[in-house]
User: Which sequence fits this backbone?
């Protein structure tokens, strides 16, 4: 484009250096400033657009953080309510203003009272004469009546004493061993200065009443005058473990051959490190194993490489490594998860609230409740496979209908995806296989004594302590489930051979293999 200097004079504005319409400003300067202003205006518009985008993103982040803050507060509040929930208080007044008393705790009205059964044998009879004066008003002139009043009272006889027994052995010479040999006497533990009854009682106090070794030593000193250091109580456990190790391994084989086995695990502290207590068993057998890992290898050490029965457990992935024939996922865990999520969702307010997610959790709770009720009704009489199959199909359709819509709440959506995943085929195994319960309550109750002991002793410190708790806890719980008195069982363990103890232990019929006699 030609400049003004290249044009003829007739094409050039005479006022270009001082334009009256521009208040005397030169047109070239005005045009240059105009172009500069346009460039700055474009830059400002771009910067303003960028700032507006940043502001919108900040507002969205702020809203999301507020919702996340409300979720965390609701989660914390729900956790606090679960930990410190108190008694529900009823409204003292009804809608019409009439006052109502709160419901009395305990059995409902009309429930028959519990009375202690009278003893079958009376050891002694004490005749008590009639009173000469009234014990209430202190009045005289009482007249005896012919009616007798009997009061039966049970008490214990405290005769604590220690019996010292001297075993005098007749020896015989063995030419093969080239030494004198002898036989143990009845109730004798060769090389032990404390007898089997005291050791069995100490183990009973330890694993049934969760008494520490130091208090066990004090108990024997105060009641029986038998003195030994706390380390001796630990030695009693070691001696019982050495005698019970063959029974423990035989119990492991019986667990691996069960048609239905409950399995679960809980945490344990060992020398400041995290360990795990693995449990497997049923109503007749109990097996415990303390392991530093929570992996497939640890599960295989309990249930074997390939479990031929049905496992009732939670959705923990390590149980998949034992390749069970079938699996029942615990419905109680599903209901508890849904209940906890519903409690958190009910605490959310405003924009953070998610009514569809809350309704979803409530529906899952109702579904699990109906499934357990239906299984209980089907299991009461003869097993009807057709009826159970129809109920399973109906429950699966209902579950898919509840999980058909995506949820906005992240934890609820994750829970929904879990129910739609591979675990879904294991939720209703109890309707396909008889004698398979829908929940893993049996394993939870079996681990309760371990959890209580963990709170008392705060874990173990040595590998031998781990072995003590694994072996003795397994034998102790199995003896109780077989109808044996644990104290008597450990007394037999100290005084009889392993084959004799095994024959006396399994009194109930075991659904696994026939027990093989153990060698001493």
Assistant:
């Amino acid at each position: 484009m030609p400049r003004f200097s290249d044009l003829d004079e007739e094409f050039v504005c005479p006022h270009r250096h001082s334009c009256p319409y521009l208040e005397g400003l030169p047109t070239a300067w005005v045009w240059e400033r105009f172009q500069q202003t346009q460039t700055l205006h474009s830059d400002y518009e771009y910067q303003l657009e960028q700032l507006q985008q940043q502001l919108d993103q900040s507002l969205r982040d702020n809203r999301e953080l507020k919702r996340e803050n409300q979720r965390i507060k609701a989660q914390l509040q729900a956790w606090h309510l679960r930990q410190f929930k108190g008694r529900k208080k009823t409204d003292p007044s009804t809608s019409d203003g009439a006052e109502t008393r709160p419901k009395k705790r305990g059995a409902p009205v009309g429930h028959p009272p519990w009375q202690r059964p009278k003893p079958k044998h009376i050891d002694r009879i004490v005749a008590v004469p009639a009173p000469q004066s009234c014990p209430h008003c202190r009045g005289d002139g009482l007249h005896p009546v012919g009616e007798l009043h009997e009061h039966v009272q049970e008490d214990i006889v405290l005769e604590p004493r220690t019996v010292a027994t001297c075993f005098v052995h007749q020896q015989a010479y063995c030419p093969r061993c080239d030494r004198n040999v002898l036989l143990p006497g009845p109730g004798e533990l060769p090389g032990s200065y404390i007898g089997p009854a005291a050791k069995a009682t100490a183990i009973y106090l330890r694993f049934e009443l969760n008494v520490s070794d130091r208090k066990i030593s004090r108990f024997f000193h105060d009641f029986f005058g038998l003195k030994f250091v706390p380390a001796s109580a630990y030695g009693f456990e070691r001696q019982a473990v050495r005698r019970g190790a063959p029974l423990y391994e035989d119990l492991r084989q019986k667990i691996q051959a069960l048609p239905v086995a409950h399995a679960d695990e809980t945490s344990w502290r060992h020398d400041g490190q995290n360990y795990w207590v693995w449990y497997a068993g049923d109503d007749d057998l109990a097996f415990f194993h303390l392991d530093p890992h929570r992996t497939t290898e640890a599960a295989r050490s309990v249930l074997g490489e390939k479990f031929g029965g049905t496992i009732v457990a939670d959705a923990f992935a390590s149980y998949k490594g034992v390749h069970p024939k079938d699996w029942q996922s615990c419905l109680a865990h599903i209901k508890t998860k849904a209940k906890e999520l519903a409690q958190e969702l009910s605490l959310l307010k405003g924009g953070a609230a998610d009514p569809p997610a809350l309704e979803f959790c409530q529906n899952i709770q109702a579904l699990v409740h109906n499934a357990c009720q239906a299984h209980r009704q089907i299991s009461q009489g003869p097993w009807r496979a057709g009826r159970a199959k129809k109920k399973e199909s109906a429950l699966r359709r209902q579950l898919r209908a509840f999980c058909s819509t995506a949820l906005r709440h992240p934890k609820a959506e994750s829970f929904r995806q879990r129910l739609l995943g591979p675990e879904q085929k294991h939720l209703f195994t109890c309707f396909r296989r008889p004698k398979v319960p829908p929940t893993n309550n049996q394993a939870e109750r079996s681990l309760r004594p371990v959890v209580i002991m963990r709170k008392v002793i705060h874990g173990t410190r040595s590998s031998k302590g781990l072995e003590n708790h694994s072996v003795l806890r397994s034998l102790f719980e199995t003896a109780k489930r077989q109808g044996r008195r644990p104290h008597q069982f450990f007394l037999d363990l100290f005084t009889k051979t392993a084959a004799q103890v095994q024959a006396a232990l399994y009194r109930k019929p075991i659904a696994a293999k026939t027990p093989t006699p153990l060698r001493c």
